[in-house]
Every structure is written in C-alpha cells, then in structure tokens.
C-alpha cells in the first residue's frame, strides 16, 4: 500500500496536475486469496490522493467485474467509499465497451485481459455469472449455476 502511494506521489500526481483523468481497473482473474488488495487498501489509497487531484477524477472503469463484486459494491459501496468515488464507478463487462468511453490508444490492455475477452465472446453466460471461466474455482468471482434443460424445467413451469 505504501509503495503504491509513493509511486502515485512521485510519478503520477506531478504528471496529472490539474487535468481531468479516469482510472481503469482490470478485475480479470482476480482471486480474493491471491491478488486482491482488499477494499480497505483501495479506500486508503483513494483517501491519500490530494483533494485537488481527486476532484479531477471523472470515472473509475471497473472492467470484468464479477457477480460477487457487483453485488458487494451495490450492497456496501456507499458505506465503504465516499459518495464522490462510489458515484464515479462504471462497470464495463468487455474491453470493447471501454472504447465507447475512452480512446483505444489511451489505455494499455494486458494480454491476459484480451484473452479473457475472447473467451467471453465464445461463452457469453460468463458475463452474467451463470457460467464459470476455465480458471475459476469455487472461490472465484462468478456464481455457478446449472443451466441444463433439466434444471430450467421448473423455471419454465412457473413463468
């Protein structure tokens, strides 16, 4: 956390000055137990940003949010983050939709994020948390749901 704050102070803030900016967060392949910094760390970093710079933040693009992440932020986001930050979060399910908001050359997209997008093209139910991705274990962000014809029969009867 301290190294991120130091990096921001030394490299990013001087370059931003009074310009408007946005943050792109790739949630692709994030595992809570392995590589997720935690909400308190994210909040602490955001609060350490000087107010003059924080006021110029236009949006936080949350790319590839999982179902759990969306539900968690919908339920607790207003309590954990200031309304200034919470109101600027924009969910983006695919990188291609990011280009509707930003210019393609503005953001460097890692290869594993592109690969995940390609997988989503072939398995669209992953967008909605109805199907797990190939890397996902039971701790992953996507919900598991049996969508076979047999499991869907009771839903058809009630509709």
Automatic annotation (TrEMBL):
Record InterPro entries = CRAL-TRIO_dom (IPR001251), CRAL-TRIO_dom_sf (IPR036865)
- One of its Pfam families is CRAL_TRIO_2
Segment forming the signal sequence: none
**Start and end of every CRAL-TRIO domain?**
2-119
Top-level lineage group: Eukaryota
Q: Where are the transmembrane segments?
A: none
Q: What is this protein called?
A: Ganglioside-induced differentiation-associated protein 2-like
Annotated organism of origin: Cocos nucifera
């Amino acid at each position: 956390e301290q190294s991120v704050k130091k990096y921001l102070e030394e490299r990013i803030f001087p370059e931003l000055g009074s310009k408007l900016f946005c943050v792109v967060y790739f949630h692709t392949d994030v595992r809570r137990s392995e590589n997720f910094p935690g909400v308190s760390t994210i909040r602490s970093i955001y609060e350490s940003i000087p107010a003059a710079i924080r006021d110029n933040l236009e949006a936080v693009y949350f790319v590839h949010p999982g179902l759990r992440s969306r539900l968690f932020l919908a339920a607790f986001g207003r309590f954990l983050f200031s309304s200034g930050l919470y109101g600027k979060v924009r969910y983006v399910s695919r990188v291609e939709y990011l280009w509707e908001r930003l210019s393609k050359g503005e953001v460097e997209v890692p290869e594993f994020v592109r690969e995940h997008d390609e997988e989503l093209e072939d398995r669209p139910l992953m967008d909605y948390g109805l199907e797990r991705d190939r890397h996902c274990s039971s701790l992953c962000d996507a919900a598991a749901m049996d969508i076979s014809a047999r499991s869907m029969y009771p839903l058809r009867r009630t509709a």
